[in-house]
Amino acid sequence: MKKLKMLAALLLLSAGSYAQKLPADSIFSQFYKATGGKALWDGVKSYTLKRSYSAAAATPYDAVITASIPEQSIYKNKTIMKRSFVYTVKGDQGWLKVPIGQRVDVKDLSQAEQQNMRQELYDNLAPFINYKNRGLIATTVGTETLNGAQVNNVELQGKGVKYNLYFDAKSGLLVRVKSLEAGVETTTDLSDYAKSAYGILYPTKLVELSSADKKPVTIKSALTVNENVNVELFKR
């Protein structure tokens, strides 16, 4: 009799856990609702991110990232000690501009580097944007506790990349992203959400930790959406 009661309790616990397992699209919908609404997100055509990066015992640097989603183009200018390194992907091409003395050397990006930047086009906002059209599959892993709060864990997987996305169960906000690519796992904690002038909420603070570097990097961000994109940025 005691064994039967224990079995019944376990079954109830299992059923309760299963009932709490929301579909991935429902979790994504909660995020969109919490950050301004799906209609606003669907209206994002371009964006610019101004970011500052800092880490212990490392030289801080700044970056300006400009992207056009319809044109699948992304430009990133990293400024380190007053030297600017410009990474650009436009269509099926990608290149890097490296300052050498008074001139600039232009090199082609590898296919892997180009693919990474194409993923950044979405990752900079939310990795699951248009995920089905991008060949990604989303699966709810379940609920767990992160920093004392309940979160919904969604796995997002595609060719050569896997994400685990952690959404605060109460607010619906994305609070952690774990990505695995080419054997390197990167954990990014997102916080300090603020409203952009466009109307969507975005995290102004990110703390990134890579299994390759093992040094936390603090990133401060400022986002603008749908401003005119300077076409000169995407010229080789």
UniProtKB/TrEMBL annotation:
Keyword field: Signal
Domain of life assignment: Bacteria
Signal peptide annotation: 1-19
Protein name (Swiss-Prot/TrEMBL): Salt-induced outer membrane protein
UniProt organism field: Dyadobacter sp. 676
Lineage summary: Bacteria, Pseudomonadati, Bacteroidota, Cytophagia, Cytophagales
